[in-house]
Structures are given as C-alpha cells and as structure tokens.
UniProtKB/TrEMBL annotation:
Species whose genome carries this gene: Stomoxys calcitrans
Location within or outside the cell: Membrane
Alphabetically ordered keywords of this record: Membrane, Transmembrane, Transmembrane helix, Transport
Mode of membrane association: Multi-pass membrane protein
PANTHER family hit by this protein: MAJOR FACILITATOR SUPERFAMILY (MFS) PROFILE DOMAIN-CONTAINING PROTEIN, SYNAPTIC VESICLE GLYCOPROTEIN 2
Pfam families linked: Sugar_tr (PF00083)
InterPro entries: MFS_dom, MFS_sugar_transport-like, MFS_trans_sf
Residues covered by region (Disordered): 1-22
Molecular function GO labels: transmembrane transporter activity
Protein name listed in UniProt: Major facilitator superfamily (MFS) profile domain-containing protein
Coiled-coil region: none
Length: 548
C-alpha cells in the first residue's frame, strides 16, 4: 500500500497535478498515456484530409477531372465523325476506316501498364500534365497530315498520351477526397465529362459541315473543315495539362513514399485555398491501408532498365494475388465489355444512325428491322474491301445523325445527374448492376423492334451503358490501396481498350455475317458482368488495427 502511494505521489508530481486530483493506478497511467500519445501525435490520412475542409480546391479538381475525361472522349471518338467526310482526302477504304478507328485504342493498350507504373512510382501529377500537352501537339501535327499511314502513326502516339489522363486521373483526383465525398465527386466529374462531351456533335455539325477550304501549297494539301475539327477536339487536353501543371501532387502518394513533410505542405495549401485562415497544424500522419505486399518506389528506384521492368511486373502480379484477384478479374472483364460497346461499337454509330435516318426519310410509313436496314445500306465493313477502288465521298453527314448523337449525350448528362444524387445513398455495385441490366436489355429489344423510330431510340439508350465506366472507376479506387490504385486502373482500362479495338475491328465482319450476333454477344456478356459486380468485396476502410 505504501509503495502504491509513493508511486502515485511520484506520478502526480511529474504531471504537475494538484493534491486534490484523484490518484490513478500505474496501469491506468500507462493506458492513458498511450491513448494521449496516439490522439495528439498520430492521425490517419483521411482524418488529416478532413481537416482541410471541402471547398474551392476540391471544385477545381472535380472540374479538371471531368475535362480530362472529356478530352479522352473527344480525342478518340472524334474519328467517328470525321472519317466519313475525310474518305477522299485520306483515301479511306472501309478497311482503312477500321484501322483509323481503332489505332488510338491500340496506343492506349500498349502504354496502359507503363503509365500505371509511372503514376505509382514517379507521381500522378508529374506524368499527367506532360502527357496531356504532348497529346495535343501530336493532334495538331496530325491535322496537317495528307497521308493515311502518317496520320495513322500519329493517332497511335496520340492514343499513348491520351491513355495517361484516361486512367491515372482517376487515382489522382480520388486522393484529394475523403471516403465520404469521393464517390459523389467522381460522379460530378462524370457529369462535367458528359456535359463537355455533349458538345462534340455540335462541334462536328458546326465545323465539319462548313463550306470553306484553305489551300496550303507548301504542304501540298487543302485544309478542310474536318482538319480544324481535329484540332478543336484536342484543345481540352492542352487546357487541362496547363491547369494540372499548377496543381500539387497527390498528398496521399507523397505520404506513401515517405515524404510526409511535402504531403503536409500540400494539405496546408488545400486548407488555405478552401478558406482556412490560420495555420493547419498536423501531427504525424499514417496511411489507413496495409501496403506490406506492395513494391514501393524506394525498393525498386533504379535507372537500370531490367530492374525498372521487374518492378513494374511485380506490381502488376500483385493485382492477381489471392487478396485482389477477384476484384481484378471482375473489374477487367466488365471494363472490356463496357468499352467494346461504349467506344468500339460507337465508332460506327454515326454510320448506322445515318442509315436509319435515311430509311425513315425515304420510307416514312414503312417498318424495318435495324439489321435489315444496315444490310440494305451496305454498312457492313468487311475487311476484304481493302481493294475497293470507288470511294464514297460525302461532304456532310445527315442532320438526324447529329440529332441522335445529341440525344445520347443528353441521356448521359441526365444519367450522371441522377447518379450524383444516388451514389452516396445506394450501393455503387447495385447501381452498376441496374445500369447494365437496363441498357443491355434495350440493346436486345432494339433489334427485335420493327418500328424504326423506337428502334433508333433504344439503340441510343444501349450506348448509355458506357456511364458504367465512370461508376466502375469509383468502385475500383475503393478496392485497392494507394500504391496499387494507379496500376489497377491502368490495367483494367488497358483490357477495356482491348475491348474497344476488338469491337471496332470485328463489328463489320459480324454485321456482314450475322448482324444480330453483334448485339447478342455484348448484351449477354454485359449482363453476366452485372451479376459478377455484386460479388465484389467491400471497399478498403479504416479499422482500429490499421491505426495501431
């Protein structure tokens, strides 16, 4: 008893306590000190990010993210609008149109893993802004090309640079938001992406249908409206690149490579931009998730090329370990079919809608099935047609083609607006399931309906399934830890772009042999992926074990 009193007296004197304060046992003192040490000197990254508030900086990130995604759409899918009117200038046979439509996606596939590795080791911002600027430069040069093979190579490099912003920006933007605000912010960015993307058919109508031309003797070409359209579609990337140059690196990435002071500086900057007036005092910050199975840049940072690719390979293999393999397989398979439909089949959307529009114009009271109309218009782009000598050289597209393209973008816009409201109220996996089921169902009904107007509308709704790409992005960033997030996004999108290439190249062959199969395969595959989405594990969350 005397010993306990002396111990308590000693503790009281060391703590500058008054004699009236209650005496504590030795174990109580140690327990209290441990808790006090944790709460005063250590916080998680999410808790630190929460202290920066939600304000102007976050709005800027949301806007830039949406614009970066829109740049991917405008740079890759603009080909669908101008390749028809550029047929004679570039000597585009049906086979060459297939090559031109898919070559950008090939560039994305070839570089996806590399961009993912660079983003996870060198930083998100440091690879995003140079790639955006370089992509615009390549686009600018390609608009002056007068030879098919030259523009094909340039579009390949454009795909390489576009790839970085299409995947890495997911990881970059998501790391400026807490778990509470992340999904909603990604949906708002998707809304902006859809809104900017909606401008594409208006730009095509306003520019491509122009009646002017400019002779440039030094280059031996006639500069026509479609060439200006190519440049305009790349300006968004240039603007985004300039803005991101002035933005900070992801604080979560900096923390993951043990640059805590730099991460704190970024958080302080965010705090001030968001309206904070006093200094943001932050103790030691720790990451929430376990990263023991991740190859960090410090372990593999070397100029040796063999070690560089070995490190990249090890990081990729981690995605297919037991802990992540289900997520990786399901996400990648879903991305494959989303892109096969949303970009692969979409590359021929203007042609098909143009045919349906002409049918309705020439046969206002007649019924017809979608595939029958396509066959009659001879829009089946058989790869054997490379020897074709007579080229169809229309100067303009039918107005109804632009009208249905605008309708699709309006549906995108409305869908993202609804998703922004629902994403924090309903499980994202369930939302994804409903979107896939509904849009795929519309795709099947479109080929079974004899009413051409209804069939055309259902055909448009079928492509709205591509909003699932953004929902899946929001799901994916929650499934992986910080140092795997960039690689996970890039690998899944690489497989997705493979779907784009396959969808673009074989659509003509499938339509020539069995048009209905072009719809049955992707619709049924999409529905299967919808059910698999429901099996994905819960997102990574903070636990007490993580903190201790």
């Amino acid at each position: 008893m005397e010993t306990l009193k002396e111990s308590n007296e000693h503790i009281r004197n060391d703590s500058n306590e008054t004699p009236n304060e209650k005496l504590l046992s030795h174990d109580d003192i140690l327990s209290s000190n441990r808790k006090l040490h944790f709460f005063e000197e250590t916080i998680t990254f999410s808790e630190a990010l929460e202290k920066t508030k939600y304000g102007r900086f976050n709005y800027l990130i949301i806007m830039v993210t949406g614009m970066a995604w829109a740049n991917v759409l405008m740079d890759t899918c603009s080909v669908a609008f101008y390749m028809t009117v550029a047929s004679c200038d570039l000597q585009l046979t049906n086979y060459r149109k297939s090559l031109l439509s898919g070559i950008g996606f090939v560039g994305i596939i070839l570089s996806s893993q590399l961009w993912g590795f660079l983003a996870d080791t060198k930083g998100r911002r440091s690879v995003i802004w140079p790639s955006l600027v370089a992509g615009f430069v390549v686009t600018l040069i390609s608009s002056f090309s007068n030879h098919f093979w030259v523009i094909l190579v340039l579009r390949l490099f454009n795909g390489v640079f576009v790839c970085c912003s299409s995947a890495t920006v997911y990881a970059y933007s998501s790391e400026f938001f807490t778990e509470k605000t992340r999904s909603k912010s990604i949906m708002i960015s998707s809304f902006i992406f859809s809104f900017v993307g909606m401008i594409l058919p208006f730009l095509a109508f306003a520019i491509i249908n122009g009646e002017w031309s400019l002779v440039i003797p030094a280059l031996g070409l006639i500069y026509k409206p479609w060439r200006l359209f190519v440049i305009v579609c790349g300006i968004t990337g240039l603007v985004c690149g300039i803005i991101i140059y002035f933005l900070p690196e992801s604080p979560k990435f900096l923390l993951s490579i043990n640059k805590e002071e730099e991460a704190k500086d970024v958080l302080q900057k965010i705090y001030r931009i968001n309206g904070g007036r006093d200094e943001l005092k932050l103790p030691h910050i720790i990451l929430e998730e376990d990263s023991t199975d991740i190859s960090t840049p410090q372990k593999n940072d070397s100029s040796n090329m063999q070690q560089f690719f070995t490190s990249m390979w090890e990081q990729t293999v981690t995605l297919f370990r037991k802990k992540y393999i289900l997520s990786t397989v399901v996400v990648s398979a879903t991305q494959f079919w989303l892109y096969a439909i949303g970009t692969g089949l979409y590359m021929w959307f203007p042609h098909f809608i143009n045919a349906m529009g002409e049918f309705m114009k020439n046969n206002p009271n007649e019924k017809g099935y979608l595939c029958d109309i396509i066959h009659e218009k001879d829009l089946s782009l058989n790869v054997k047609n490379d020897n074709q000598t007579t080229l169809d050289c229309p100067d303009k597209l039918e107005n109804i083609t632009y009208a249905y393209a605008v309708l699709m973008d309006i549906l995108y816009l409305l869908s993202f607006a609804i998703l922004t409201f629902l994403v924090n109220r309903i499980n994202k996996n369930f939302i994804m399931f409903i979107v896939i089921l509904f849009c795929s169902g519309c795709g099947l009904v479109a080929i079974w309906t004899a009413n051409v107007s209804i069939s055309a509308i259902l055909y448009v709704i079928f492509f709205v399934v591509a909003i699932g790409i953004n929902i899946l992005g929001a799901i994916t960033v929650d499934l992986y830890p910080t140092q795997l997030r960039g690689m996970a996004m890039c690998v899944s999108l690489m497989i997705g772009r493979l779907g784009s290439v396959i969808g673009t190249y074989i659509v003509g062959v499938l339509i020539a042999n069995n048009c209905e199969l072009t719809f049955y395969i992707p619709c049924c595959a999409m529905m299967i992926c919808g059910f698999l989405i429901l099996l994905l594990p819960r997102p990574i969350t903070v636990t007490n074990q993580d903190k201790t």
